[in-house]
Design goal:
This protein is an alpha+beta fold. The protein is built from 17 helices and 18 strands. It starts with a helix and ends with a strand.
Length: about 425
């Protein structure tokens, strides 16, 4: 109980401008201490020593609904030591455990997922379009337990309780902030081992304005660090293997190879799986991507190829991957549609969005979903939902990225193909 008794003392360290509600926070710390989260409660003083930590505590005490994924004491015991020894990193890690909104009654069975926006928006770890905060994803798996997805340690929700406006989900591991594509692929060594080599085959010419030199950049490198907001449908290892002859035949035709993989990419828009059932999208090559959700699964179609999404919502700092079971062999392009989609995405990125509810729609609670039919055609193929770093039309001449300028289009510190 010493941690609880000390709560008013650490709260006095916060600037009044943050308007921390000491009553709410004291009640929360008491509840955490009494339910096996004394290590988390004991970090409050350290959190309050940084501006970002003070912001987290202020928002938690605001009276609006939150979900707190609270690691047990043993979870902290096994967590990397630098998390608790670095106050700024600690604030970011805790921010990733706090989800905005009321998720009461929300329950999804994998491969359907529940996603919510966290309080983590530090650009060191998050480079999504429109400066959006990072998300966390969870779902009920076959063992009938709720698992937090994209976690190397397979974090599981042990129990749930409520303190005022805050729902506390006790988890058995400290959650890992989403990592880069280059780090995620080795961690997911079953599904994605073949995609890196395939993406490295796709090359684009670049011009570095700092060194005044030309060069090339692979699509893998572009996805890894240079785009701010994208959705990529990544063929799994078996799909890459099955399409090996088709991919090999395109290696002498870089334009076609670029188009094929651009048709796996939604440019400038991070579209999580619950949103895929609500509308269709336009690929970076300008071709329609259509989606069906029915009793057998979630499907994406490009051209005359349909693939099933077998692993949704692989989260990245700068986008999201949905793993699919076929390569979408489509080398068609529509530069006008691609340009229109990129323009719509850029505009959407400047618009503020609510982050206080589950992302997507409640029908994803079951695979039966809406009706099993393709979403309404009223959703324009040319209008992608949001944007940041834009990856536009095919027949690419130059690439712009962080630190790289091109003869063509520039979009701040993010990437544009023109």
């Amino acid at each position: 109980m010493r941690l609880f008794a000390a709560a008013p003392l650490f709260l006095t360290c916060a600037p009044a401008a943050l308007a921390q509600n000491t009553t709410v926070l004291t009640n929360l710390l008491q509840a955490l201490t009494q339910t096996g989260h004394s290590r988390l409660a004991g970090l409050a003083t350290q959190l309050n020593s940084t501006a970002s930590g003070q912001s987290v505590l202020s928002q938690l005490s605001s009276g609006t609904p939150f979900v707190l994924f609270a690691p047990t004491d043993s979870a902290f015991d096994s967590a990397p030591s630098n998390i608790t020894s670095n106050a700024d990193l600690l604030a970011d890690v805790v921010a990733y455990h706090v989800v905005q909104g009321n998720f009461t009654g929300t329950s999804t069975h994998y491969p359907n997922t529940t996603l919510g926006r966290t309080l983590l928006s530090d650009p060191t770890y998050v480079q999504l379009e429109g400066n959006k905060s990072q998300v966390v994803a969870w779902a009920i798996r076959e063992d009938n337990k709720t698992h937090v997805l994209n976690q190397r340690n397979d974090s599981t929700v042990l129990n749930t309780t409520t303190v005022g406006n805050i729902t506390i989900n006790t988890v058995d591991h400290v959650l890992i902030i989403p990592e880069s594509l280059s780090s995620t692929i080795p961690a997911d060594n079953i599904s994605l081992t073949g995609i890196e080599s395939a993406l490295r085959l796709v090359q684009y010419p670049t011009f570095n304005a700092t060194t005044n030199q030309t060069g090339t950049s692979s699509l893998f490198d572009i996805l890894n660090t240079q785009l701010h907001g994208y959705t990529f449908f990544a063929p799994n290892t078996s799909a890459i293997s099955a399409a090996n002859s088709s991919l090999a035949s395109l290696q002498s035709n870089m334009t076609a190879l670029q188009a094929l993989f651009q048709n796996h990419l939604i440019n400038g828009t991070t579209v999580y799986s619950p949103l895929l059932a609500s509308q269709n999208y336009t690929s970076a090559a300008g071709e329609p991507l259509t989606f069906v959700l029915n009793g057998t699964g979630h499907y994406v179609t490009s051209g005359n190829i349909t693939a099933q999404i077998v692993q949704p919502d692989v989260l990245l700092p700068n986008g999201v991957i949905h793993v699919i079971d076929r390569v979408l062999i489509n080398t068609e392009t529509d530069s006008s549609a691609a340009s229109s989609a990129a323009s719509s995405a850029s505009s959407a990125a400047t618009q503020s969005t609510s982050a206080t509810a589950p992302i997507g729609f409640s029908a994803t609670a079951t695979l039966a979903g809406p009706s099993g039919s393709t979403p309404s055609s009223s959703s324009s193929h040319s209008g992608n939902a949001a944007a940041g770093g834009i990856y536009s039309a095919p027949n690419i001449a130059q690439v712009v990225s962080v630190g790289i300028a091109v003869l063509g289009v520039i979009a701040g510190g993010s990437l544009v193909l023109a």
